[in-house]
């Protein structure tokens, strides 16, 4: 049986086009596993937006997205780097959102961007799903012009609260035929995600007692950690110089959060701006490096 399963997996992979998306099957959730009205990133590379209380959470099958208040919109989208999307101009693409069960809660699926005249344009905008119940939402389209801040996304219906979809995976591929998704190994997917965002602790938890760095000031006056070289390296080089946020305390007192890092590059950052009171120990517990597209 194990041999049969292994062979079937290889056969599916051989018939499947590569996906152009990172974390299309929602394996990686560095920021957390449940979000309420964030208007921000949830599963890595996936942005939840809405005008009133949308929610997203990790499930065994993938990601569940829900609307909040009736009459409000909820979008779930993925944004491309401009130079990457430029390579798709003139090509036919197939986009598939795969749900865990049939639903009629989807309003539309789209791919859009900003053209050279700073106007929003759609490469595709399919609203026909609103009148159908199904578990697979597929559109085929051609990218006919260059756009910046290009996205693919799905919008839920807004007529009532609690419109919901559990997505198993999303795939964008070259060609006019939808093929099955072949998942990447988790480690490979995580590394791709960490080019955009990286945290020192799994799942965005910052209160588990971890101490990444400690320095005690035994001097008679305040000194700065710069003297002891407080530097952290990223596991993956970032796409741009990231914004860094870190958390610290003095001898287990109230945890503080700061964005005031010293030198920051695509590969590391240093902390050299915290003054440690005499006789106190500085504990740095966690950090996040954000190079996402906003």
Can you describe what's shown?
The radius of gyration is 22 Å and the shape is elongated. By secondary structure, it is mainly beta. The protein has helices spanning 2-15, 82-86, 186-193; strands at residues 34-36, 40-41, 47-50, 55-58, 63-66, 74-79, 92-103, 106-114, 120-126, 134-142, 148-156, 164-174, 197-199, 213-216, 231-233, 243-250, 256-258, 268-270, 281-290. The model has no long low-confidence stretch (mean pLDDT 90). The strands form four sheets. The chain has a six-stranded antiparallel sheet with strand order 1-4-5-12-7-10, with no helix packed on it. Strands 2-3-6-11-8-9 form a six-stranded antiparallel sheet, with no helix packed on it.
Secondary-structure blueprint:
Elements: H1 2-15, E1 34-36, E2 40-41, E3 47-50, E4 55-58, E5 63-66, E6 74-79, H2 82-86, E7 92-103, E8 106-114, E9 120-126, E10 134-142, E11 148-156, E12 164-174, H3 186-193, E13 197-199, E14 213-216, E15 231-233, E16 243-250, E17 256-258, E18 268-270, E19 281-290
Antiparallel strand pairs: 1-4, 2-3, 3-6, 4-5, 5-12, 6-11, 7-10, 7-12, 8-9, 8-11, 13-19, 14-19, 15-18, 16-17, 16-19
Summarize the structure.
With 294 residues, the chain is mainly beta. It is 9% helix and 39% strand. It has three helices and 19 strands.
């Amino acid at each position: 049986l194990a041999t049969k399963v292994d062979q079937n997996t290889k056969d599916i992979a051989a018939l499947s086009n590569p996906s152009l998306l990172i974390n299309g099957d929602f394996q990686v959730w560095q920021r957390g596993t449940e979000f309420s009205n964030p208007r921000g990133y949830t599963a890595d590379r996936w942005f939840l937006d809405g005008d009133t209380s949308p929610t997203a959470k990790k499930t065994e099958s993938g990601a569940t997205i829900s609307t909040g208040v009736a009459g409000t919109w909820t979008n779930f989208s993925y944004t491309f780097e401009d130079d990457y999307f430029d390579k798709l101009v003139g090509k036919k693409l197939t986009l598939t959102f795969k749900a865990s069960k049939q639903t009629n809660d989807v309003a539309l699926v789209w791919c859009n961007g900003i053209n050279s005249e700073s106007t929003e344009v759609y490469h595709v905008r399919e609203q026909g799903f609103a009148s159908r119940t199904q578990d697979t939402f597929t559109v085929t389209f051609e990218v006919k012009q260059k756009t910046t801040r290009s996205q693919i996304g799905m919008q839920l219906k807004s007529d009532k609260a609690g419109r919901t979809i559990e997505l198993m995976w999303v795939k964008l591929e070259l060609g006019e035929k939808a093929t099955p998704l072949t998942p990447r190994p988790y480690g490979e997917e995580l590394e791709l995600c960490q080019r955009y965002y990286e945290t020192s602790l799994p799942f965005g938890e910052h209160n588990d007692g971890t101490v990444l760095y400690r320095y005690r000031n035994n001097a008679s006056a305040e000194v700065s950690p710069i003297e002891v070289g407080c530097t952290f390296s990223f596991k993956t080089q970032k796409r741009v110089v990231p914004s860094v946020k870190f958390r610290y305390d003095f001898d287990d007192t109230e945890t503080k959060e700061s964005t005031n890092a010293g030198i920051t590059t695509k590969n590391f950052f240093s902390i050299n701006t915290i003054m440690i009171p005499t006789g106190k120990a500085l504990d740095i517990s966690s950090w996040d490096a954000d190079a996402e597209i906003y």
